[in-house]
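ligand=protoporphyrin IX containing FE
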Amino acid sequence: MHAPTYTKPLPCTSQPSSSLSLIASNSVSISLSTLMGLPSSSLDTSWWVFTLPAIARTQNLTHNPLLLIILTAILSIALLAWAFPRGGGGPAWRNGKNQMGRVPIPGPKGVPLFGLLFSLNHALPHRTLASIASALSATKLMAFSLGSSPVVVTSNPHVAREILNSPHFADRPVKQSAKSLMFNRAIGFAPNGAYWRLLRRVASTHLFSPRRILAHEPGRWLDCAAMLRAIAQEQSKNGFVCLRKHLQDAALNNVMGTVFGRRYHDQDECYNRREIEEVRDMVREGFDLLGAFNWSDYVPWISFFYDPLRVRERCSVLAPRVKKFVKRILEEHRIMAPFKELSDDSDFVDVLLSLEGEDKLEDDDIIAVLWEMIFRGTDTTALLTEWVMAELILNEEVQTRLRHELRRVVGNKTVVTDADVIKLPYLEAIVKETLRLHPIGPLLSWARLSTSDVHLSNGMVVPANTTAMVNMWAITHDPSVWHEPLVFKPERFVKSEGGVEVDVRGGDLRLAPFGAGRRVCPGKNLGLVTVSLWVANLVHRFQWFEDMANPVDLAEVLKLSCEMKNPLRALASPRFTN
Ligand code: HEM
């Protein structure tokens, strides 16, 4: 919209000076406003700028200090109007982008240029977003800016269902680190299309199907047994156990075994120590880089001045290391391929190498897919198990009840198997309650991206290219969704005791820690089977107590996943003699 045409003649009799003519020229007034991104209403009221010379009764504005002050004030107001646009949402929501629907999307304006970046770059963005949404009555949907990226977040299960299940939200925004580490060729970040569908199909059939998960049980049990041994050793040596390291080792072995056909147990001599250390180091570095808050993902120019974590540089070192490592494993598998038959317990490398015709993948794509599995599969299961154990230690009666359930199902056996685990409803309730109280992806790990303008049923419209987040933490802590949301109460999921039946695999958005829709976590069954098996064996083998010298601290920190800020340290009293 153009500024209104000036109609009143200036009372000034002589010609304006050149600077004045610039200001008094209609076309310049428009371009100045446009440059500043002023909303049309400010243009409508800007006509009085042209009367300034009359007010000042002067021909040269620059020589009049009063006018200079007024001009500076106008410019400042214009700048502020540009930086804090109307309607909320902040700098990325200028020009009424949050008002495209019947109902506008409310949201905080944040800081000019940066939006909410300063509020969200610390450890607990899910809590901050939940408080802002609640304060602005924007829990259904809130618009905000992360630098130049427009973002919406919902803390409402109905809107969450619409977003996660919509085909228009089936892409993800790709972080710089993910791109540099090749993840844009893997399942999680590949754009929604034929390539992504192929990867999902192959992974669902050959890695995550119930048959394959069952076929890999012996390997899973090997890792679990090694973990139990290491825990017993640490307890007898130190008098306490730091659980996270054992869980991470078991998780790494579990995923390395299923994906690469390699396991690294301490008593195994066949793999050299250097390789184990190399894998651990690469995984650690990858976690750090992918979990790091990288300013240049949101304010691209900032990396020229400010890159405190050296994300770009570190990625460019890690990516070739990963490639070299995985390529070596691919070559070994290629050499052995003629001597192996594919079966249900084949590792994922063999499966990917066996693909033919249209399904055949380039080496670089295989490397990306395999590497992603290591990343996604390792910390998720370890950190979730750590949260479960922390709650069991703090809630002694829940631990005791679980042990009774185990005794009833397992009897005198020292080992709990996958077949036993499915007969343990109280264990299932404990895992669900932990996922509710401590969702390890409180903002569902990686966000979604709208591929077109999306009309929601509540009258709001999310424009194309908007990042969409679901604040699962806010939903699972909402007292209007969950009674006494801060209390750890597995009984709320025990049906025979009046509890609710909730499908945590994406069917019920009141508790969807694995996401939902076509991009729901494909590793959800593997994750749940693994965590349940570990918890069952940890509780069956040991009685767990709080270490009073290091009390359990439920403080959290959000990195790649939401983890205990202070890793769990506890006392493990063995229940069997061998
Ligand atoms: C207990 C553990 C786990 C939790 C809580 C979890 C959670 C999630 C969440 C919230 C998402 C995003 C879903 C969405 O956008 O709707 C996701 C995606 C994904 N997860 Fe998991 N996950 C777990 C375990 C695993 C495991 C064990 C693997 C593989 C070994 C895995 C592989 C993936 C992959 C590949 C994606 C991307 C899917 C896509 O974009 O198409 N996850 N996970």
